[in-house]
Amino acid sequence: xxxxxxxxEVSVRGVDIGFGRVKVLEKLNLDIAQSExxxxxxxxxCGKSTLLNAIAGLLDVNDGQIWIGGRNVTWEEPxxxxxxxxxxxxxxxxxxxxxxxxxFGLRVAGMPAAEIQKRVTEAAxxxxxxxxxxxxxxELSGGQRQRVAIGRALVRDAGVFxxxxxxxxxxxxxxxxxxVEIKRLHQRLSATMxxxxxxxxxxxxxxxxxxxxxxxxxxxxxxxxxxxxxxINRFVASFVGSPSxxxxxxxxxxxxxxxxxxxxxxxxxxxxxAFRSPAAPGPAVLGVRPEHVLAGGAAGPAAIQAPIxxxxxxxxxxxxxxxxxSGASFSVRVDGEARVAPGGTLPVSxxxxxxxxxxxxxxxxx
Length: 366
Prior knowledge:
Blueprint: E1 10-19, E2 22-32, E3 37-41, H1 48-56, E4 63-68, E5 71-72, E6 83-86, H2 98-108, H3 113-127, H4 142-154, E7 160-164, H5 172-189, E8 192-197, H6 200-206, E9 209-214, E10 217-222, H7 224-229, H8 234-239, E11 246-255, E12 258-263, E13 266-269, E14 282-288, E15 294-295, E16 304-313, E17 317-323, E18 329-335, E19 345-349, E20 356-359
Parallel strand pairs: 3-8, 3-9, 6-7, 7-8
Antiparallel strand pairs: 1-2, 1-4, 4-5, 9-10, 11-12, 11-14, 12-13, 14-20, 15-19, 16-17, 16-19, 17-18
Helix pairs in contact: 2-3, 2-4, 3-4
Domain ABC transporter: 10-240
Protein name: Sn-glycerol-3-phosphate ABC transporter ATP-binding protein UgpC
GO molecular function, one term: ATP binding
C-alpha cells in the first residue's frame, strides 16, 4: 500500500468520559506503541467501544487528551486524525459496487483517479476480493462484505486502524478466516491497530498486548501469555479462558516460609509458586486452569481421586467435570481418547508453578 512514514503511536492521557451523571471512563491512561496491535477486551458496557470512539474522534472527552503520532488530536475532527475505522456493521453503500464503496472516500477527497485505482487494486488483492469489485453488497456474503469494509479502510493512507468488533456478526468459520486475514494484514502493513472485542479467542490470537477492561478501568495490560498465565485479579482470571479458570476457596497455612494451600481435604504445597509480595498465612482462593490440572498417570503419587460427574467431548480434547473432596466442582482438560466415564474417578494433582492465588476480598493476585 502507500507509504506510512508518519509516526503513529497513540497515547490516551487522563481521559474522562461520562453521559450525565454516569461515568464511563475516568482518568484512563493508555500508551500504544508504533506498529503495535492492541486489543481492548471486556464484557458489554465496560467502556471499550467508548474508548475506541474517543480515539476516533466520534465522542468528545470531558477531560484529558488523546495524542496520535506525537500530535494532540483531542479536538480534531475524525478525518484529520490519520485513522481508518472498521465498524461492527459493514456500513456499505447498497447502490455502489465494491469498487465504488472502496474508492468513495478517496474520490470525495479529490485524489487523482490513477492513484485511487492503484490503491483499490492493491487492497482488493490483499483481501482476495479482486473478483468482487463489480458486485454490489447485496450480492455478497457477510464475510465478503466485511472484507470490503476492511478494504475501504486500507485504501486510506492511515497510520492507525481502529476495529470495533468487526467479526461479531459472522459465523464461527468466517470469524476464524477473517481473524487470520487481519493478523496477516498487521504483519504486512506494520500499522498501529486497536481492536475492540468481547471474544477472548480473538484477543489472545491477535494481540501484541491485551487491555482487559471492566467498569471503565483497565484491569490488566500485558501480553496474551501473561494475561492468561498470570491474571492480575479474579475478574481477569475468570473472563479470559474458555472454559473458565477453576476456583477453590481455602487458606494459606504454614510457617517459616513453608506454605501450603488448604481447601477442605485438599492440601497443595506452594513451593515454586511466584508470590507477588511476601506471603503470609490467611484466607485465599486458589485458581487453576483446566489444562494445568495434572490427570491420570501424570498426577503422580500425591494425586487425589476426584469423582467424575460429567464429560464434554471436544474433539481432540475432552473436558472432564469432577468434584473436589470439599464438594466444589472443577474441570480438567484431558486427551480426547482418555478412558474416562461419569461415575468413575480421575487421579488429579495441582502443580504449584501453574496455579494462581487470589485474596478472598478484592480478588487481587497474591
